[in-house]
Amino acid sequence: MTAPVAPRSAPRAVLFDFGGVLTTSVLNGFSDFSESVSGDRRLVLRLLSGDAEAKHLLVEHEEGRLDHDAFEAGFAQCLRAAGVDVETDGLIGRMQSHLRPDDEMIALLTAVRRLGFAVGLVSNSLGRDCYAGYDLDELFNAQAISGMEGVRKPSRRLYEIACERLGVRVDEAVMIDDLAQNITAAERLGMRGIVHTDAATTAAALSVLLEVDARELLPDAPQHAGDALEEAR
């Protein structure tokens, strides 16, 4: 006889990635920077994902073992080896210069908290100033930032730290991230997950998981987002 499957716990918390969720797309931003310095939109992402030295630098930096200046020096050398001469000082800032706050997603986060759900930040950090201009203590109930914790997504430990600080079990949390591999890791841990593409689509998906009206999460959605929101009502 098959054992009954226990029902999943209702969500009590929502975890948010930072870059690409509360900001405009990191991938597009890096591509814009890459095109500006090399004429090749894919070069920077190709190095960070496929070059052994650049990948090592990124992991070491995101997990806090390599500081801001050392990452800049190392990655500038990787770019030079690829034929692109860049100034080392300020390199991370220039890589992130195309990123802007996503005001709709910040409003959605605020709405989630107003509805009584705990909210946490689970973020792989890049550079000393990547959160400049954002009051993280005001926005979030708890934070788990890779450079401070010594572990990065998609490692399960970073998600667990956020849940522990929020006082919820992993199966009581929803994770929102723009990278599918990070959501896959969260779901394997027992979380619900949403791969973020835009505010309206995320609001629609989240409203179903939280069992709230989508317009409570994104009341000022633009007209083109109406269909997605209506489907979730």
**Main sheet specs:** 5 strands, parallel
Oligomer: single chain
The chain-level mean pLDDT equals 93
Number of strands: 5
As laid out across the biggest beta sheet, the strand order is 3-2-1-4-5
What best-fitting shape do the alpha-carbon axes yield?
globular
Number of helices: 13
Instruction: Assess the beta-strand content as a share of residues.
Output: 5-15%
> What is the helical fraction, as a range of percent?
40-55%
Q: List the uncertain runs.
A: none
Q: In terms of structural class, how would the helical and strand content be classed?
A: alpha/beta
End-to-end CA span: 38 Å
Summarize the helix and strand pattern as letters: EHHHHHHEHEHHEHEHHH
User: Using only CA atoms, what is the Rg?
Assistant: 19 Å
What does this structure look like?
Helix content is 49%, strand content 10%. It is of the alpha/beta class. Strands 3-2-1-4-5 form a five-stranded parallel β-sheet, sandwiched between helices. The protein has helices at residues 26-38, 43-50, 52-62, 68-81, 91-95, 103-114, 136-139, 146-149, 156-166, 180-189, 199-210, 214-217, 226-231, and strands at 13-16, 118-123, 142-145, 173-177, 192-195. The longest helix is centred in the first third of the chain and has 14 residues, at 68-81. The protein starts with 12 loop residues before the first strand and ends with a helix. The model has no long low-confidence stretch (mean pLDDT 93). 41% of the residues are buried. Strand 2 (118-123), helix 7 and strand 3 (142-145) form a beta-alpha-beta unit.
